[in-house]
Amino acid sequence: MVYEKLTPARHQERTITKVRMTTYVHISNSLVDHCKSIASDLQVQHEVNLKELILKFILEHSNIKSERDAVLYYFNDGKNSANVRGDLVYDYLDVLNENK
Predict the structure, then answer these.
(1) Long-range CB contact pairs, 16-20, < 8 A, 24+
(2) CB atoms within 10 A of CB 57
(3) Which pTM was predicted?
(4) For 12-34, how does the pLDDT look when each residue is reduced to its tens digit (9 = 90+)?
């Protein structure tokens, strides 16, 4: 996967290409600021995978009221997923150590 750090100087309008699909995501300075602020609050990296469509989907979802809410949801959900995966790995390693 290709990840890019969000910095205002590098993010204008971007083209994201997937197999048989092209979409345009406008990465505004306010979106960059929200990503940095929220990621810092959640103690996660403020990188966004520009080849995925999850953030675009969240930004356009009718239940999301603002760009800030979308970014908060995106990073919160990512952090929760990482925690679940981490717990699974540590639980698996504990089981392996118990069976030695």
Answers:
(1) 16/50, 16/51, 16/52, 16/53, 16/56, 17/51, 18/51, 18/53
(2) 13
(3) 0.65
(4) 444 444 444 445 566 788 888 99
